[in-house]
Design brief:
The protein has 13 helices and 3 strands. Strands 1-2-3 form a 3-stranded antiparallel sheet, with no helix packed on it. The radius of gyration is 27 Å and the shape is globular.
Length: 318
């Protein structure tokens, strides 16, 4: 017993010594060391030196060459997710009317499986609270799919909604309104540029209610939201307008130059980005009309004209 205790202490001291030994990069002295995606290497983030290398393969012992083969060989289920009310831990009955050998089921078995699926869906939610959570998370998933945002945004939105539910912030408010505002907050947190107008388009509640609910939830939950950078909208707007890389880089340059002079304060980031793209298209001889830019950015032509005039004056172009 004493020997095993001493061995554990010796191993802990050895690990501690190893951790102290790799505190900094031997090449540049930086302490900014990061692990690679497969955790096999410790790399300096500043100069790129591989500080430590571990050849232990932490993957599965089997090989797969396509998705179906990988699914058939895997011995674990899907990972837990916050986007489902039960976190994906309950079983599901497959919609295919086939047995384990791929043969079609008889009509009697098909009707039986249909009844089983129906009852399985009913018993997954034990009370009204879970049913409301299931509805809210399905709304978040629907809107996120319509907006084309990645999976990470849906996970963050689901976590924010669960926090709002545990803090009892949903009482007296519509489930759809809170779900939409949490999705907008998740887009802001993850740096995925989606304006309030775009989120309102895929939602079943109006823009004013979304904004009001978003401000209330972010204040109550203490969500730290930075102001949206107009440059986040530039690549998407330029892609929709089918303009060159030159116009995109020029628009970013206009935004940087004019923002340093304080013109961005109090302005809508989408309108500001749209005006910069319009100005850049004129300067690069790839003229786009104000109507075309306004349709892509979902702002009015008046907004583009006003912001464009301010930016041109700040740049000293006449």
């Amino acid at each position: 017993m004493k020997r095993s205790t001493r061995q554990r202490e010796r191993r802990a001291e050895q690990t501690k010594t190893e951790e102290e030994a790799v505190q900094g990069c031997p090449e540049c002295g930086s302490e900014n060391l990061v692990n690679s995606a497969d955790q096999s290497e410790l790399v300096c983030d500043d100069c790129g030196l591989v500080v430590e290398e571990d050849n232990v393969d932490r993957g599965p012992e089997w090989r797969a060459f396509n998705h179906s083969e990988r699914q058939s060989k895997s011995r674990v289920g899907a990972p837990t997710t916050q986007t489902m009310h039960d976190k994906g831990l309950t079983t599901t009955i497959d919609w295919k009317n086939q047995d384990a050998y791929g043969r079609s089921l008889s009509s009697e078995k098909r009707s039986q499986m249909h009844r089983l699926r129906k009852w399985q869906e009913r018993i997954r939610t034990k009370d009204a609270g879970e049913r409301n959570l299931q509805f809210a998370l399905s709304e978040i998933d629907r809107m996120a799919s319509a907006l084309g945002v990645p999976r990470s945004v849906r996970e963050v939105a689901s976590v924010i909604y669960r926090r709002a539910l545990s803090e009892d912030l949903i009482r007296g408010r519509s489930i759809e309104g809170v779900a939409t505002s949490t999705l907008y907050a998740a887009c802001r947190q993850e740096g995925i540029p989606r304006s309030l107008e775009e989120v309102a388009e895929v939602s079943r509640v109006n823009q004013k209610e979304i904004g009001r609910t978003y401000r209330y939830i972010s204040q109550e939950l203490g969500l730290e939201m930075k102001p949206v950078d107009p440059k986040q909208y530039v690549p998407r707007f330029c892609s929709d307008l089918n303009v060159s890389e030159e116009v995109q880089s020029k628009a970013n340059e206009i935004i940087d130059t004019t923002a340093e002079q304080g013109l961005l304060s109090g302005k809508s980031p989408t309108g500001y980005a749209a005006a910069a793209i319009y100005a850049a298209s004129l300067l690069c001889n790839e003229k786009k009309t104000q109507r075309e830019v306004a349709d892509v950015a979902q702002v009015t032509e008046v907004t583009i004209r006003n912001r464009y005039q301010e930016q041109i004056e700040a740049l000293g172009i006449h």
